[in-house]
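step 3/5: co-fold with 2-acetamido-2-deoxy-beta-D-glucopyranose
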Amino acid sequence: MKMGNSSFVAIALLMSVVVLCNGGKTSSYVRNLLQKPVDMPLDSDAFAIPPGYNAPQQVHITQGDHVGQAMIISWVTVDEPGSNEVIYWSNSSLQNFTAEGEVFTYTYYNYTSGFIHHTNITNLEFNTTYFYVVGIGNTTRQFWFTTPPEVGIDVPYTFGIIGDLGQTFDSNTTLTHYQNSNGSTLLYVGDLSYADDYPYHDNVRWDTWGRFTERSAAYQPWIWTAGNHEIDFDLQISGINLSTICQTSFLGTSTLQYKWLTAELPKIDRTETSWLIVLMHAPWYNSYYSHYMEGEPMRVVFESLFIKYKVDVVFAGHVHAYERSERVSNDKYNITNGICTPVKDISAPVYITNGDGGNQEGLSINMTQPQPSYSAYREASFGHGTLEIKNRTHAHYSWNRNQDGYAVEADKLWLFNRYWNPLDDSTTHIP
Ligand SMILES: *[C@@H]1O[C@H](CO)[C@@H](O)[C@H](O)[C@H]1NC(C)=O
Ligand SMILES: *[C@@H]1O[C@H](CO)[C@@H](O)[C@H](O)[C@H]1NC(C)=O
Ligand SMILES: *[C@@H]1O[C@H](CO)[C@@H](O)[C@H](O)[C@H]1NC(C)=O
Ligand SMILES: *[C@@H]1O[C@H](CO)[C@@H](O)[C@H](O)[C@H]1NC(C)=O
Ligand SMILES: *[C@@H]1O[C@H](CO)[C@@H](O)[C@H](O)[C@H]1NC(C)=O
Ligand SMILES: *[C@@H]1O[C@H](CO)[C@@H](O)[C@H](O)[C@H]1NC(C)=O
Ligand SMILES: *[C@@H]1O[C@H](CO)[C@@H](O)[C@H](O)[C@H]1NC(C)=O
Ligand SMILES: *[C@@H]1O[C@H](CO)[C@@H](O)[C@H](O)[C@H]1NC(C)=O
Ligand SMILES: *[C@@H]1O[C@H](CO)[C@@H](O)[C@H](O)[C@H]1NC(C)=O
Ligand SMILES: *[C@@H]1O[C@H](CO)[C@@H](O)[C@H](O)[C@H]1NC(C)=O
Ligand SMILES: *[C@@H]1O[C@H](CO)[C@@H](O)[C@H](O)[C@H]1NC(C)=O
Ligand SMILES: *[C@@H]1O[C@H](CO)[C@@H](O)[C@H](O)[C@H]1NC(C)=O
Ligand SMILES: [Fe+2]
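step 4/5: write tokens
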């Protein structure tokens, strides 16, 4: 998948990691851990239902093609199906365009969804602001978004990274912090609403989540990865069409996924798309007790591909905390040979866990001790990540802890591109 000058493939599987000794930094920042995050009540302002007959709600957009000239507009109506039409125009044009989409509903136990609409709007200009209107014929609502710049090797672009968000007061803080960042597209690393934590997986909590995230997701594309909290659902039922980014089943050894990835990776032309970013749900390099080693089955199969194809950075969620690895690999290990020590490897990606959105299950605070050498920085706090691609050689990554000011970077580093600038960008000394 290509966007701006970056490129990413998404995999949604379960995975994780391995042991070592004396690594990087364990933050001394201590968050107030006494209170578990609680979900915002159903009547919270964050879930407000837009007024008016059949008013579109849960409006969200995602990229409709690989380069950014199409956008899928999705929304839910509750009184009647209404229209699938989107009217849109660019800031500078005098002409309106229309596109038609499709509508469907689903049931889950005793829940019946609203009317879920998806409309792909096409032939968009690059780097252009568009306004769009949904709810034609009933109550209309207007939003806007800006398309990414045309793919180019040195084109700057800023991504946000959020995972395991849920819908607590902390989730709300994380989203507000993200909205105050300069992210133009959000990379979502799985586990969305946590509706399945409710009795009968109360799908009303998918609708509240859709209304909660609308204030960002209606204005910029969110690129989705599925997590384990999406597993027991049909992937479509949240009203989010995940199919563009996650076309694979996500449990098990999944030959399908392997075939897909081995077919996709060679297609990426790094002289055109300079950065290669992978999104997945469960991390491979994780030094928390939570989900420790869970990514091993996947890492063993896929890690050498990431190195071969010079993946720059891998973002994951799942573990409800923050962690960043050094560039390490452990691809000699095959379970029977006993070679099970991650080693410094400047051909390898940096692995970042951003499972810290703020869901009601709470933070993962138990860390393995001592901090393994693959782990450069770890902290049990909520927050979000920002990846600012500057040009073909440099990208700046930062992590914003949601307890601080909007622009405070609790962890940060310059990432050097593995294809164009494969120098050592370690932040701690590792053997
Ligand atoms: C949206 O439209 C674009 C342009 O026609 C097309 O390439 C893309 O496949 C469509 N996306 C989906 C998900 O249908
Ligand atoms: C639309 O364009 C006008 C100038 O033509 C500019 O002032 C305004 O900020 C633009 N709006 C957006 C949302 O880009
Ligand atoms: C385009 O559609 C919007 C919203 O329906 C409307 O306000 C505007 O007048 C239309 N512009 C043109 C040029 O038809
Ligand atoms: C669904 O079933 C549960 C459990 O019986 C009940 O608490 C809830 O009110 C029902 N919801 C609807 C919409 O009927
Ligand atoms: C709502 O919009 C649809 C689609 O345009 C239209 O067919 C329907 O008559 C409208 N409903 C009302 C009550 O106006
Ligand atoms: C995108 O457009 C803005 C003006 O709206 C311009 O300043 C910027 O350089 C453009 N970016 C690219 C990559 O073309
Ligand atoms: C959620 O955050 C928004 C934006 O900061 C704020 O307006 C709203 O009051 C918050 N809602 C709750 C329930 O915290
Ligand atoms: C966003 O970018 C502006 C302009 O470069 C900068 O002043 C501001 O601090 C940035 N915001 C954050 C949260 O980094
Ligand atoms: C969205 O999901 C539906 C239902 O699975 C599917 O038929 C449709 O092709 C998807 N649309 C897009 C735009 O991906
Ligand atoms: C594991 O790796 C060793 C070499 O390090 C090799 O001899 C052995 O066949 C491999 N086993 C499996 C199951 O791939
Ligand atoms: C952390 O680990 C310790 C020792 O295994 C255990 O007693 C404790 O319950 C764990 N705490 C949490 C919050 O999981
Ligand atoms: C790439 O970006 C980095 C960081 O902003 C900058 O130091 C470097 O000079 C840039 N490279 C080129 C060729 O402009
Ligand atoms: Fe998870």
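step 5/5: annotate
The pocket of 2-acetamido-2-deoxy-beta-D-glucopyranose (ligand 10) is lined by residues 334, 336-337 (CB under 6 Å).
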